[in-house]
Amino acid sequence: MDLNIAEYVRFLTLAIVPFLLAVTVHEFSHGLSAYMLGDDTAKRAGRLTLNPIAHIDPVGILFLVITRLFGWAKPVPVNFGNLHKNRKYGPAIVSVSGPVSNLLLAIVSAVIVHLMAGMQFAEGSTGMKIAVPLYNMAILSVRINVALFIFNLLPIPPLDGGRIVQSLLPYNQAVAFSKIEKYGFIILIVLFLTRTIDVIILPIMNFVLKILL
To answer: Which domain holds residue 27?
Structure first.
């Protein structure tokens, strides 16, 4: 649905907080899981924090402005060689923690949506003026987090799904698969420009949204 300028600005105003929360928690989860498995790289880099300023990527925010759904933050630095507490599955655990955090945020946001839907406010009251924007932000939070959950699980390096596949493959196959990473961003751009990404993600996203909302 096309949005006029006023509606588009309204959308961005409502979406920016849920988006920053989504990508911040996503990257924090990567850093925290790595830290728990023995790697303190993110902590030493000042990235083991829920302060969104530490994670903001201008290009990722621009992508949100363009797509109205997708975006990203600066990847948290992780030294997978330091994951001595679980060397075999550590990289997969660190990689999947980001998307899982988005799914959990989507569930929490959906609960808020349902709770607020049952509230009653007098027409034009201060409560309604506050509740309506918060309600819309919660709905956007569900949509953004579900989109990020599914998007990041695509098996394309450097997305988390690609990292998961790479970490589970035998060494030789993992090395060969990792070579795709230098083309990963180009692949994603092509998927977006050709709207192939919609064909892949939207059916799954709509299914999950029907469950949550």
So the answer is: 5-212
